[in-house]
Structure to design on (230 residues):
């Protein structure tokens, strides 16, 4: 089954404790992206990747890091989480650069930073 | 600047009635338009897209959308709503003139409630 998986689905952590949210897709997609979803703000892109070893900032990259060492994986790293990073996070992938092709979304990771 | 507007935060419709969820956009070039749906506690799912060609686009679950260039709109429609259509709907656009910045611009979402 074609899918995007994210782990963990739920995470409660404390300020400053480094964490990683994993994302993996099994569709051999070139393009992957991370979004955060906040009430009243919709979806905002954090980082995206055109292909292996090619990443770039989205709209709200501050406080986040990503890597793309393998085509299927695109982890999101919070080096020192803060309460304003409490949010619902989605990973997505698509063929090519997403120009014409729809994006496939993971189930989401709900992060709470206290 | 590119933008997407979903003018209604919430739409209520009775089951069996037609539904419309509105979307307008602003881009400098040709638009690539998408609709996604988000069911509670789920990720977003693709519904349909307009890239070029016929202005009426048919998608998943009986949804369709009409591209109107003069009104810069891409409204989502369904002839007969189901209670199971209740969800959050997002419109997104990409500008063909966006150069290397190829990201999607997302609307804020419209919550659709279909009442039995």
């Amino acid at each position: 089954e074609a899918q995007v998986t994210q782990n963990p689905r739920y995470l409660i952590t404390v300020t400053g404790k480094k964490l990683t949210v994993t994302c993996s897709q099994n569709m051999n997609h070139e393009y992957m992206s991370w979004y955060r979803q906040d009430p009243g703000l919709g979806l905002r892109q954090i980082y995206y990747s055109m292909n292996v070893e090619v990443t770039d900032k989205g709209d709200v990259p501050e406080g986040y890091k990503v890597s793309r060492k393998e085509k299927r994986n695109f982890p999101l790293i919070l080096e020192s989480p803060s309460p304003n990073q409490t949010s619902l996070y989605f990973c997505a992938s698509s063929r090519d650069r997403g120009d014409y092709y729809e994006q496939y979304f993971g189930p989401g990771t709900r992060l709470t930073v206290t | 600047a590119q933008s997407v507007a979903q003018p209604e935060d919430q739409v209520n419709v009775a089951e069996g009635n037609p539904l419309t969820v509105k979307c307008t956009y602003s881009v400098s070039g040709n638009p690539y338009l998408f609709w996604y749906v988000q069911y509670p506690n789920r990720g977003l799912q693709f519904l349909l897209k307009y890239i070029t060609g016929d202005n009426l686009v048919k998608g998943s679950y009986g949804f369709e959308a009409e591209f109107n260039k003069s009104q810069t709109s891409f409204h989502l429609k369904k002839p007969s709503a189901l209670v199971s259509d209740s969800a959050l709907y997002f419109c997104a656009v990409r500008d063909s003139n966006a150069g290397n910045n190829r990201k999607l611009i997302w609307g804020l979402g419209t919550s659709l409630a279909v009442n039995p």
Summary: Chain B has no helices and twelve strands.
